[in-house]
């Protein structure tokens, strides 16, 4: 069993289809995390799928952003902020083996998440799919040098894989298979589950997939070129860079303090479990921006905040979707079947739910706090300065959003307080959730 300490920084993003592994992405979590967070957080992942109307754009209650179409449209609409992500199809194999000291032959793990390298944090990946269980076992058994593998983002819409991935090192595994569990109506179920603890140790460009007869339970093997952390070049230490470094830290600290100090804002933006835990968000100073390796810790922290905000939006959306689904199902004749299947609902309700999800997806993406594509862009960048500029624009955007929102809340609560004073009513809070 993992200790609460291990789980402290881990929470599941249930963004990956059930046949695949879960990438346990870090969220802000209270110190005493419940070990069952995995299960309770992930129950909802089967509850909704995208349906007919928008299936081509596959919005769902998951608020997932691992889509190639989305990456593409962001570059088109905002080329100054977004870099192009290169993808390839995994069936694109190379005939001949590349034989060069620079290249490495390692297992490839396509995932619905992006892992930030060099952050020093441990990541958890829960393997269910047989080929991933096999990979974890092979890595553990020393079949692959230093237990290294390459995790790379897989687009949900095209199934293509990003051509830059994160080199991960398997540290430890924990076999949590469930054997002989009975499912209704009585089938025996064996769930092979291997929880892998890994560390992200580098970035690699995927050159090709080894050509061989991959069976259904075989994992892919890739040839990759591992980037070495190139030392910060002198010309990056310009005055301009110094001022960017100051700015990024100033913006970050401001965002951090708003989340910590503005209770009404935090209660709108953060899930319940994170409202106090937000105090544990680390502080940074500008020297970290100058250090190419340590800078990744700031990137990782920012991704954790993005994950947390997504989790908050997602649970709110799913609560609404569930409520509407159940209400609609109760109107139908016959016994109520739970969980409610989307396809069994009247068409107008299906349409309403799809609209709701699509709107929530759009609103969420407009926040600029998604934890996948922006981070894929960052790991794809070769120069430190570009990564810094990209993260700087992300953090600044969030600062501006929070500041605008904060002043709105303030104006509103002053107004409300005024009215309450007139009526002699001091019980506040009625307007707290007016800002979504
Ligand atoms: C790989 O798969 C894609 C999509 O299924 C297909 O369009 C493409 O032709 C395939 N390429 C090869 C080399 O099989
Ligand atoms: C990561 O895991 C390793 C091996 O289990 C452990 O020694 C290390 O302290 C962990 N690091 C963090 C930051 O939890
Ligand atoms: C979705 O957004 C559109 C346009 O902003 C709006 O007209 C529509 O009512 C929204 N639908 C739902 C279900 O919220
Ligand atoms: C004061 O506010 C509470 C909650 O908003 C409300 O239930 C109550 O009726 C109000 N009392 C007066 C005197 O307006």
TrEMBL record:
Signal peptide annotation: 1-21
Keywords noted in UniProt: Signal
Superkingdom assignment: Eukaryota
Protein name, entry field: Lon N-terminal domain-containing protein
UniProt source species: Discostella pseudostelligera
């Amino acid at each position: 069993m993992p200790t609460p300490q291990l789980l402290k920084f881990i929470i599941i993003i249930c963004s990956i289809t059930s046949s695949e592994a879960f990438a346990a992405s870090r969220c802000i979590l209270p110190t005493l995390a419940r070990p069952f967070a995995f299960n309770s957080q992930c129950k909802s992942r089967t509850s909704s799928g995208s349906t007919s109307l928008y299936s081509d754009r596959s919005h769902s209650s998951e608020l997932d952003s691992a889509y190639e179409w989305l990456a593409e449209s962001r570059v088109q609409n905002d080329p100054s902020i977004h870099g192009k992500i290169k993808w390839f199809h995994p069936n694109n194999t190379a005939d001949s083996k590349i034989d060069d000291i620079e290249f490495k032959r390692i297992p490839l793990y396509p995932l619905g998440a992006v892992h930030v390298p060099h952050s020093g944090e441990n990541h958890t990946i829960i393997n269910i799919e047989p080929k991933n269980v096999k990979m974890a076992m092979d890595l553990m058994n020393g079949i692959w040098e230093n237990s290294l593998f390459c995790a790379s983002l897989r687009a949900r819409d095209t199934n293509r894989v990003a051509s830059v991935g994160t080199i991960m090192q398997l540290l430890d595994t924990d076999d949590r298979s469930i054997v002989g569990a009975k499912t209704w109506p009585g089938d025996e179920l064996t769930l092979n589950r291997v929880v892998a603890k890994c560390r992200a140790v580098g970035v690699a460009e995927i050159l090709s997939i080894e050509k061989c007869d991959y069976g259904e339970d075989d994992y892919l093997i890739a040839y990759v070129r591992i980037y070495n952390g190139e030392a910060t070049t002198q010309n990056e230490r310009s005055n301009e860079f110094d001022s960017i470094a100051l700015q990024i830290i100033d913006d970050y600290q401001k965002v951090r303090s708003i989340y910590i100090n503005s209770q009404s804002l935090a209660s709108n933006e953060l899930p319940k479990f994170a409202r106090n835990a937000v105090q544990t968000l680390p502080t940074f100073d500008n020297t970290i921006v100058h250090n190419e390796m340590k800078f990744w810790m700031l990137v990782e922290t920012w991704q954790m905040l993005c994950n947390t905000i997504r989790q908050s939006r997602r649970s709110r959306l799913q609560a609404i979707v569930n409520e509407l689904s159940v209400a609609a199902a109760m109107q139908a004749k016959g016994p109520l079947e739970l969980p409610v299947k989307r396809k069994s609902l009247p068409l107008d309700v299906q349409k309403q739910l799809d609209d709701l999800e699509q709107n929530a997806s759009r609103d969420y993406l407009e926040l600029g706090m998604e934890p996948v594509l922006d981070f894929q862009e960052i790991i794809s960048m070769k120069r430190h300065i570009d990564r810094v500029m990209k993260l700087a624009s992300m953090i600044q955007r969030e600062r501006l959003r929070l500041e605008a929102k904060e002043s709105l809340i303030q104006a509103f609560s002053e107004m409300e307080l005024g009215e309450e004073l007139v009526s002699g009513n001091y019980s506040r809070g009625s307007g707290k959730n007016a800002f979504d």
